[in-house]
Amino acid sequence: MPYSVSEVFYSFQGEGFLQGLPMVFVRLSGCNLRCHFCDTKYAFKNGKHLENVEIFELIKGHGCKRICITGGEPFMQELSPLAELLKKKGYWLTAETNGTLWQKPPLDWLTVSPKREGKGICPEGYDKRFLETASEFKYVITDRKDFDFIDRQIKQPVILQPVNNNLQAARIISEFMLKNPGHNWYLRFQNHKIAGVK
Q1: CB 74 within 8 A of CB 49
Q2: Domains observed in the chain
Q3: Does pTM surpass 0.70?
């Protein structure tokens, strides 16, 4: 089954709960949203069509057994065949989705990152079935109004990420969290950008 792939590269996870872990990133192309703050707009289109085994060949050369499937929006493509192949080969597998398109591929970790732009598809910005399968939720915070968008039903860790490591947004997050300490929320920056790596 061919996938539309934007790029495959080796780096460390700069976002979310798994920050600092070396991973091979498989960035699939295509996205069903157009968020104004997106930092991977180049992945919206123009992917290279690769079969499962071709993707595996690109991955195995890096020598790392952790894989992150990201995008764009990777759940626009049927992930199970690729995920099953990688699991069979002994890889630890994570993916990140905006949560508007339901799938349940065999993953070890799943990050759901709802966006306001997804409210046209799902009332909460994500499919509620992900409440049962997500490992973490991640919200990009641009200003105070974004706190109203966060679903308080979520029991998993909720990462609050200041847009593009903006310090004003980080201060807004920290002030809010200090006034509301009872939530399962974490302030996290995009560490790969701070370190100056991809």
Answers
A1: no
A2: 3-195 (3.20.20.70)
A3: yes
